[in-house]
Amino acid sequence: MQARAILRGLIFIASLVALGYVLEATHFGASINQAWIDTEIRGKGLSGELLFVGVGALAAALAMPRQIISFLGGYAFGFVLGTMLTLAAVIAGCIVSFFYARWIGRHFIAARFGARIQRIDDFLSWSPFAMTLLIRLLPVGNNLATNLAAGVTSVRALPFFLGSLMGYIPQTLVFALVGSGVNVDPALRIGLAVLLFLVSGVIGVWLYRKYRHGHTLGAEVDAELDPQALKDN
After folding, report:
1. pTM of the full predicted structure?
2. Low-confidence stretches of the chain (pLDDT beneath 50)
3. Cβ–Cβ contacts within 10 Å for residue 67, how many?
4. d(CA 3, CA 8)
5. Contacts of 49 (CB under 8 A, 6+ apart)
6. CA angle 216-157-105, nearest 5°?
7. In the chain, domain spans
């Protein structure tokens, strides 16, 4: 069992090195932009939609902010279809990074970040769907880090994915709306997007304060979202 854990750790390290080399050589992140959308996605029909979802999923799994993917989805396909395809892409990326951590990097990550992983495990295990939804609605945190950390924990996959999907919706709507160029005054469109963003963030903070039941994502997060709790402690 120990040899298997060591082997998985070595595979995990090697895969990260290889991935970093490929990203460096191909300039992957920098190439996913509006020019790429114009040449490879727009007007390509189903093949363009599938390519967007596939590349978007890979980008999300490799830590590209989902807000950028949402903006590009809105730019490429308009508000409604762009939102749906972006959600498909980012949840696919979530699944990839979750199982990457669970199947390959679990022992390596847990051995080095045990305390943090245990804190996230405690937070999610109380109610995986609800607590994942809460995390996704918060205006702080890192999408990839959450996926990897959850993959290392004992949290069940399906509730985590469903909570993530529901939690992704507000910000996906916001940034797809900004990118869509719908036939609305630009100032009004951006104002509406900002309002939706603030509302989703406020809801996330309120849920965190009300329903975390003594669990925590860490002192830094608590300081930003619930400073009163720190004073009470």
Report:
1. 0.77
2. 1, 219-225, 227, 229-231, 233
3. 19
4. 9
5. 41, 77, 81, 85
6. 80
7. 2-232
